[in-house]
Amino acid sequence: MTGWQFAGAVTLLAGGTYLIRVAGPLLRARLDITPKAEAVLERATIVLLIAVALTSTLFIGSDIAGPARPIGVAVGVLAAVLRAPLIVVIVAAAGTTAALRAVGVA
Q1: Contact 38, 55 (CB under 8 A)
Q2: Handedness of CA 9, 12, 17, 20 (dihedral sign)
Q3: Model pTM?
């Protein structure tokens, strides 16, 4: 990929993203969405975010990640559920993962 192709791809992606973000408020005023459909869309967003998080937690490329990463993420989730400050959640997750890897749990 040349520099011009890359710049064109980035410009196209940025333009498309902007158009989608502008279309949301414009179309929201014109379309009537039932409460049931709105609830499904809200749940779909959460499911998509969880799927992305699980994929990046459990896999490194096409290989399965070792147990240190999922355990670290679980510690971070637990800290978040217990309403710890964000910095505590991040440090707990990263610290647990690093400690497990330091003792040989890959």
Answers
A1: no
A2: negative
A3: 0.63
